[in-house]
Amino acid sequence: MRRVLAAVFLTVAGVVMLLQYRTPPLPPVKRAIATATAHVVAAAPPRPKSTPKPTPSATPKATPAPARTVATPVPTRRRVATPPPKPRRTPAPTPVVSRTYTGAPAAACNYGDVVVRITVRGTRISDAQAPTYPTDRRQSQQINQDAIPQLDQETVKAQSSNIDTVSGATCTSDGYRTSLQSAIDQWKA
């Protein structure tokens, strides 16, 4: 309740203050301009009154004969057939040769070998795969099922053997990098 009363009181006080606000008088320069403008408007010449229509005179005027209208043909636009544009001959794209390089088998600790195969298209590694990796144990299968695709993607992204180790697959990552470097060396040779 106190809040409501305080809000009403403040609102009323604000309205009263707004109503008591007086604008300050114009500075002398603005007052002189306003006065001069008022004098110019007041001293403007009055507008001329409209002139009355002339009254018909007693002398009859000759009425002109109605003009004959002659139908003139409207020129039609003829569309000129433009020859179709000549097809531009673009040279056939030079086929980009893809080459595949397979790295030497690299031991992934004591769990088995990792072999990496890269596909090079032009001057870039377009694909990397590990057809051989440790799968002899169930744990190796689970680890490498996630690690090998990550290492393949990192290789294409990095375009080198400078790739990060996959957490939990340190031995596989080390073997992958070693075989990858072997494949890159074959490519660069």
Give me the CATH fold name of one domain.
Sufe protein. Chain: A
Write down the Rg.
48 Å
- Beta fraction: 5-15%
Average pLDDT taken over every residue: 79
Order of helices and strands: HHEEEEHH
Q: Tally of extended strands?
A: 4
- Number of helical runs? 4
Stretches with pLDDT under 50, minimum 5 residues: none
CATH top level class name of one domain: Alpha Beta
Q: Characterize the main sheet.
A: 4 strands, antiparallel
CATH architecture of one domain: Alpha-Beta Complex
Oligomer: single chain
Cα end-to-end separation: 90 Å
Shape: flat
Label the structural class: alpha+beta
Helix content percent band: 25-40%
Kindly list the characteristics that best describe this protein.
alpha+beta, single chain, 189 residues, 4 helices, flat, four-stranded antiparallel beta sheet
What does this structure look like?
There is one protein chain. By secondary structure, the protein is an alpha+beta fold. The protein has a domain at 98-188: Alpha-Beta Complex (Sufe protein. Chain: A). The chain has 4 helices and 4 strands, in the order H-H-E-E-E-E-H-H. Strands 1, 2, 3 and 4 form a 4-stranded antiparallel beta sheet that branches. Strand 3 and strand 4 form a beta hairpin. The longest helix has 21 residues, at 138-158. The radius of gyration is 48 Å and the shape is flat.
Quick gist of this model?
The protein is an alpha+beta fold. It has a domain of 91 residues: Sufe protein. Chain: A. It contains four helices and four strands; from the N terminus they run ααββββαα.
